[in-house]
Amino acid sequence: MNLSDQYRRDEELNARITILKAVYEQTDRRLNDILIQKQLDLFGHRKSRDWLRTQLRAMSELGVISIREIGSAMVAEITQTGVDHCECRMIVEGIARPSASQ
Question: Comparing C-alpha atoms, which of 56, 60, 26, 22 is closest to residue 41?
């Protein structure tokens, strides 16, 4: 893996933990893709909606979120596996580890 590929992978892992934590922090543990994209923008991940939806599908395959499409929106809901990852009870490969300060 060259440096460019490694950077893209690291950015992807970091974006995924940002997504997961954004959903985790919601009272009902759900968040739509429009609001998730705004959260990513705040953390410097300026990506397209298509890129975000690809990440949400990958995270669903990893078992950390479930997704539903409602009209033109995609809604992510955190699973117990996702909660366990956010609370450092387990590690899910394919998502960066949460920082110790959070």
Answer: 22
The whole model's pTM is what?
Answer: 0.92
Fold annotation for 3-86: Arc Repressor Mutant, subunit A (1.10.10)
| Exposure letters 25-48 (e unless 16+ CB within 10 A, then b) | eeeeeebbbeebbebbeeeebeee
CA dihedral 79, 80, 86, 89 (to 10 degrees): -160
Quick: pLDDT tens for 54-72. 999 999 999 999 999 999 9
Question: Residue 67 pairs with which residues in a beta bridge?
Answer: 76
